[in-house]
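Q: Please design a sequence for this.
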């Protein structure tokens, strides 16, 4: 769940044996998504010779209720982000990955803070954040 101001920085999902990423959108049943709400999935390309990720997304996928987005996880290729949510309505989704039986040959399959920070030199903004503590236990009454 992303609340107002929530977002996800640009990354490629390459960790372990992930080979396909998916997102199932659950926000706003019966209502259309509008760009002013924010929260779109942003897809990025790398620049030709420099290999840096272009700063502007090449495609925005709306988080429409009941839709699912899939994309192949490829090192240095599958860059994506979640646009900042600009609405008081939360952006709800289920996301996950399909995994290969084994890691790809010769591929770096783990992400460390040092690796993520080193990507800043290559045009990818990355930073570590601590997850907030839950306000109440799952399943407790409101």
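A: Design:
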């Amino acid at each position: 769940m992303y609340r107002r101001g929530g977002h996800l920085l640009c990354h490629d999902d390459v960790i372990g044996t992930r080979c396909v990423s998916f997102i199932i959108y659950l926000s706003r049943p019966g209502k259309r998504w509008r760009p002013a709400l924010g929260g779109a999935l942003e897809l990025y390309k790398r620049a030709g010779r420099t290999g840096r990720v272009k700063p502007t997304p090449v495609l925005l996928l709306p988080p429409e209720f009941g839709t699912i987005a899939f994309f192949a996880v490829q090192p240095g290729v599958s860059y994506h982000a979640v646009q900042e949510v600009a609405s008081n309505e939360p952006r709800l989704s289920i996301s996950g990955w399909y995994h290969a039986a084994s890691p790809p040959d010769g591929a770096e399959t783990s992400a460390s803070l040092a690796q993520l920070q080193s990507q800043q030199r290559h045009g990818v903004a990355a930073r570590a954040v601590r997850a907030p503590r839950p306000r109440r236990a799952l399943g407790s009454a409101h």
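Q: Thanks. Anything notable?
A: Confidence is low (pLDDT under 50) at residues 119-132. Strands lie at 8-11, 18-25, 41-43, 59-61, 68-72, 80-82, 93-99.
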